[in-house]
Amino acid sequence: MKTRVFISHFHEDRAAYSALCIALDNLGVSRWDVSRLALGRPLADGLCDAIEQCNLCVFIATSRSLESKWCLAEIGAFWGAGKRVIIYLADSAVDESDLPPQFRGNLWTDDAKRVMEAIKESDMSSVQETKDGYSVKLGGLQITVSMGRVEEYECNASNRLVALPANEFFDDECIHDSNSALGAFMQRHFGDHIPAIQTLVSDQLAGKPSEDVEKTPGKSAKSYGIGACVYLEKPLSIDLRVAMIAVTTQRKDVGLRAGASYIFSVAEELHRIMANHRLTHLLIPVIGSGHGGLREEVSLITMLIAFAELSSRLSSRVFRDINIVVYKRDAFTEPSIAPVTILRALNFASRYLR
């Protein structure tokens, strides 16, 4: 995504604003132009659009803009979205102590040249736009968040693992449910042969450690534990590498659930599977939501943290490319996580998880 800059300023500071606009235009850096906002549309809607489309905010700090509730709302909104805010002190009467507390100690300068340098630096480290989502580089790990259906993505490359959520018993009826990631993928790639896949899963589970737990009142089942995995390599001679990974649990008096901590267990098991089978690319839907009950936004952020932390901690090249798929039924419907939220999550990752 090419850098697009939002300039927060007080309308009477027109000279400083115009000079900054000219400098950005000369650099070829695109900027948000509030004058393009459709007539009659609330300014708040325009700010939401700006946060979604801009990589950073430059705040022209003057005595007037620091007293403007709207200017403070703008920079607060960018800060809350996890996006970079550069403070340009354009008034000699203003110093760092006059800034809102959350911006003290951050990048601020009274030198326009340094503002331009910081913008160019952000251009090199920003979230990139893809054909159906966004992508960010975290050290040696490329993470893409796409909006679509996991079963429709290219998945038969020899270095790619497809990870699909299951429950700790691996008796998930979702395998027959086309509205679930597991069911949609299985039906798309195996059709009427799902019973044969279930047999392969049972064979893989034979001999694995388990414990009998009371799943529902009066009904016990074998639990293989959160993070347990069934790995299928070229199942039914189809050129796929599939991992069914336990991310939800069920207990009497508790019901079905998933926890954010489960995602860390899943990430570690996937790392082990991929290392053992020399796989480097991972295709995975957002996990832990749905029947698990986690908010999808929480699941996505936790996945980003888990994969980035694991890749950094183990200093390995196992995770090289991860594509997390946010469900989007078709071209005419909205994704289950709003694009602006995906951008915020990846900007957070870019800023804190490198």
Give a description of the structure.
This protein is an alpha/beta fold and 354 residues long. It has two domains: 4-125, Rossmann fold; 128-352, Leucine Aminopeptidase, subunit E, domain 1 (3-Layer(aba) Sandwich), CATH 3.40.220.10. The chain contains nine helices and 16 strands. It has helices at residues 14-27, 43-53, 69-80, 112-125, 181-190, 194-205, 260-276, 296-314, 339-352, and strands at residues 4-8, 30-31, 56-61, 84-89, 108-109, 128-129, 133-138, 141-148, 160-167, 211-216, 219-223, 229-233, 241-251, 255-257, 281-285, 321-327. Strands 6, 7, 8, 9, 12, 13, 14, 15 and 16 form a nine-stranded mixed sheet that branches. Strands 2-1-3-4-5 form a five-stranded parallel sheet, sandwiched between helices. Helix 8 links the parallel strand 15 and strand 16 (321-327). Helix 2 (43-53) crosses helix 9. The protein is elongated.
Structural key phrases:
about 350 residues, alpha/beta, Rossmann fold, Leucine Aminopeptidase, subunit E, domain 1, 2 domains, 9-stranded mixed sheet, 5-stranded parallel sheet, 9 helices, elongated
Structure at a glance:
The strands form 3 sheets. Strands 6, 7, 8, 9, 12, 13, 14, 15 and 16 form a 9-stranded mixed sheet that branches. This protein has a 5-stranded parallel sheet with strand order 2-1-3-4-5, sandwiched between helices. Strands 10-11 form a two-stranded antiparallel ribbon.
